[in-house]
Backbone:
């Protein structure tokens, strides 16, 4: 008798689960039809807002203009810069840099003074050259 009840309950659960599966299929068919209808209108990655929605979240539209931003954005990343437009500069004599006329990233022209170097030994060599 107990086995008969167990088999009956099992059959009942099986029939109920089969019935729910049919309703899910019809819902998925409806969703598929709806997405097919709307797929021609616009891609799903674009969101559009109505006037009421824009007013609710206080969104205002304006014209594109150039201006400096007053806030900062912190982001992590990797900067890869090609080696063209870079040069290595060395001095014939060592010394102390007294003035530096450019900063990192500045463009320079041929003949432009980039820095002035002071070396007491070099000054002595110039004095000897002028006296000879």
Residues:
């Amino acid at each position: 008798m107990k086995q008969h009840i167990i088999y009956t309950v099992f059959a009942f659960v099986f029939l109920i689960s089969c019935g729910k599966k049919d309703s899910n299929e019809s819902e998925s068919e409806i969703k598929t039809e709806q997405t097919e209808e709307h797929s021609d209108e616009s891609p799903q990655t674009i969101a559009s807002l109505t006037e009421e929605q824009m007013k609710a979240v206080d969104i205002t539209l304006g014209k594109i203009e150039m201006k400096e931003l007053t806030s900062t954005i912190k982001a992590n990343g990797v900067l890869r810069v090609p080696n063209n437009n870079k040069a290595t500069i060395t001095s014939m004599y060592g010394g102390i840099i007294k003035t530096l006329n450019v900063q990192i990233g500045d463009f320079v022209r041929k003949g432009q003074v980039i820095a002035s170097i002071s070396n007491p030994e070099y000054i002595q060599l110039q004095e000897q050259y002028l006296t000879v």
Notes: The helical segments are 2-39, 51-56, 120-131. Residues 96-131 form one domain.
